[in-house]
UniProtKB/TrEMBL annotation, chain A:
Protein name (record): ATP synthase subunit b
Functional summary from the UniProt entry: Subunit b, of the mitochondrial membrane ATP synthase complex (F(1)F(0) ATP synthase or Complex V) that produces ATP from ADP in the presence of a proton gradient across the membrane which is generated by electron transport complexes of the respiratory chain. ATP synthase complex consist of a soluble F(1) head domain - the catalytic core - and a membrane F(1) domain - the membrane proton channel. These two domains are linked by a central stalk rotating inside the F(1) region and a stationary peripheral stalk.
Gene behind this protein: ATP5PB
Family as reported in the entry's similarity comment: Belongs to the eukaryotic ATPase B chain family.
GO BP annotations listed: proton motive force-driven mitochondrial ATP synthesis
Pfam families per UniProt: Mt_ATP-synt_B (PF05405)
The organism's taxonomic lineage, starting at the top: Eukaryota, Metazoa, Chordata, Craniata, Vertebrata
PANTHER family registered for this protein in UniProt: ATP SYNTHASE F(0) COMPLEX SUBUNIT B1, MITOCHONDRIAL, MITOCHONDRIAL ATP SYNTHASE B CHAIN
Subunit relationships: F-type ATPases have 2 components, CF(1) - the catalytic core - and CF(0) - the membrane proton channel. CF(1) and CF(0) have multiple subunits.
Main localization category: mitochondrion
Claim: 4Fe-4S is one of the keywords in the record: no
Naturally occurring in which organism (per UniProt): Crocodylus porosus
UniProt cross-references to SUPFAM superfamilies, sorted A to Z: ATP synthase B chain-like (SSF161060)
From TrEMBL, chain B:
Entry coiled-coil feature ranges: none
The species this protein was found in: Crocodylus porosus (Saltwater crocodile)
Main location as per UniProt: mitochondrion
Protein known as: ATP synthase subunit d, mitochondrial
Family named by the database record: Belongs to the ATPase d subunit family.
Keywords for this protein: CF(0), Hydrogen ion transport, Ion transport, Membrane, Mitochondrion, Mitochondrion inner membrane, Transport
Keyword Mitochondrion listed: yes
Lineage summary: Eukaryota, Metazoa, Chordata, Craniata, Vertebrata
Function: Mitochondrial membrane ATP synthase (F(1)F(0) ATP synthase or Complex V) produces ATP from ADP in the presence of a proton gradient across the membrane which is generated by electron transport complexes of the respiratory chain. F-type ATPases consist of two structural domains, F(1) - containing the extramembraneous catalytic core, and F(0) - containing the membrane proton channel, linked together by a central stalk and a peripheral stalk. During catalysis, ATP synthesis in the catalytic domain of F(1) is coupled via a rotary mechanism of the central stalk subunits to proton translocation.
Length: 252, 161
């Protein structure tokens, strides 16, 4: 009712409004339904069915009848309804009924006998599927986390790149320094070597001169000894020897 | 003067080694070996050559004026510092690397953001127990069946089954 009224009033409202606002104003002016909209995340459907009695009658049915009829009421209703159908011949017993009873008992037997196995089999297939997809999901999550860690580590590695260049510059500076020191040391060594050479030369020269002088003196002395002197000296030696031997005998 | 020049930025090799990736380990080891060799050579050399005992030579050597001339020339001799041509190259190299590194870090950050988005998608996903087929197709596009291309069940090539 109200919405229709609003609709009827709308052209008048629209005319008053600027054209750019018209669509929004129309939406605001109309309230199509006042009910609470269904919130998006619906609760998931139950995994298992609700409680039942006698295999197929829902518990809620009994709970619904209890206030009106008491505890035996539902059973009375069932029994009375059956008797009514039978006595009025609305339901007629015939060969179909026998067949239905046999068929139903077979079905019940089969469900009781094989139901759990089939359920377990179906459950297993479902579990396998779920396990497969969750493995994929977990692997992907792990791979992504690893990748993020790797990237962060790479970023850190890039951040300390200055180490390499510092090391290189250090090496260059040290090499230059080594070169400089080696040159200084070389100059020092060369100068010292030459000075030492001079010293050594001087020593050598002096020794040579001394040797030469000694040789010359000796030679001149030997030359100056005459045969007369030679004989005298030999005789003196023999006399000395004799005196020595006497002294040796006396002591013995 | 010499001591001052060598006092460069000291490099923490232990910290450096922690940041080296396994595939660059060989290069790092080579660099470290070279640096260690150079620094040990540097420490083995004296900072200044020992002084020459001029008095001793003056007393010993008889040739007049020789030692004085030696001393004069030795003290006059200035050894030039070796010219540094490599540091400029290294600086240029660093500058070039700088650009690459910034680009790489930016790309890496972008990649990290992408990965994190993907990770969040995975973590906020509806649990598989509660998923419908439509939601599964939404989450993993490759599970969607192309019914236009493969018109009959199972809507995908038999070889993929």
């Amino acid at each position: 009712m109200l919405s229709r009224l609003a609709l009827r009033a709308a052209p008048g409202v629209l005319r008053n409004l600027s054209p750019s606002l018209s669509a929004g104003a129309l939406c605001a002016a109309r309230s199509f339904h006042g009910g609470q909209p269904c919130l998006a995340p619906l609760p998931p459907l139950p995994e298992r069915g609700g409680a039942v009695r006698h295999g197929f009658i829902p518990e809620e049915f009994f709970q619904f009848l209890y206030p009106k009829t008491g505890v035996t009421g539902p059973y009375m209703l069932g029994t009375g309804l059956t008797l009514y159908l039978v006595s009025k011949e609305i339901y007629v017993f015939n060969n179909e009924t026998v067949s239905a009873v046999v068929f139903l008992s077979l079905v019940i037997y089969a469900v009781k006998r094989f139901g759990p196995d089939v359920a377990a089999f179906a459950e297993k297939i479902n579990e396998e599927k779920l396990a497969k997809v969750s493995t994929i999901k977990n692997d992907s999550i792990k791979a992504l986390e690893t990748a993020i860690q790797q990237e962060k580590k790479e970023q850190e590695r890039v951040a300390v790149r200055s180490y390499i260049f510092d090391a290189k510059r250090n090496n260059v500076a040290m090499l230059l320094e080594i070169n400089y020191r080696e040159r200084m040391l070389m100059v020092y060594n060369e100068v010292k070597k030459r000075l030492d050479y001079q010293v050594a030369m001087q020593h050598l020269k002096r020794r040579k001169e001394q040797d030469h002088m000694i040789g010359w003196v000796e030679r001149n002395v030997v030359q100056s000894i005459t045969p007369q002197q030679h004989k005298e000296s030999i005789a003196k030696c023999i006399l000395d020897l004799k005196a020595l031997s006497k002294a040796a005998q006396a002591t013995v | 003067m010499a001591g001052r020049r060598v006092a460069q930025k000291a490099i923490d090799w232990m910290a450096f080694a922690e940041y080296v990736s396994p595939d660059n380990r060989m290069k790092f080891n080579a660099l470290k070996t070279i640096s260690d060799t150079i620094s040990s050579r540097l420490t083995s050399l004296p900072e200044k050559p020992p002084a020459i005992d001029w008095e001793y030579y003056r007393r010993t050597i008889a040739v007049a004026g020789l030692v004085d001339e030696f001393e004069k020339k030795f003290s006059a001799l200035k050894i030039p510092m070796p010219v540094d041509t490599e540091t400029a190259k290294i600086d240029a190299q660093e500058k070039a690397t700088e650009k690459d590194a910034i680009a790489y870090v930016d790309a890496s950050k972008a990649r990290v953001v992408e990965y994190e988005k993907e990770l969040e998608r995975y973590q906020n996903m509806i649990p598989f127990e509660l998923m419908t087929w439509e939601e599964l197709n939404e989450a993993f596009h490759e599970t969607r069946l192309d019914k236009e291309k493969h018109r009959y069940w199972p809507h995908k090539p038999i070889t993929d089954m």
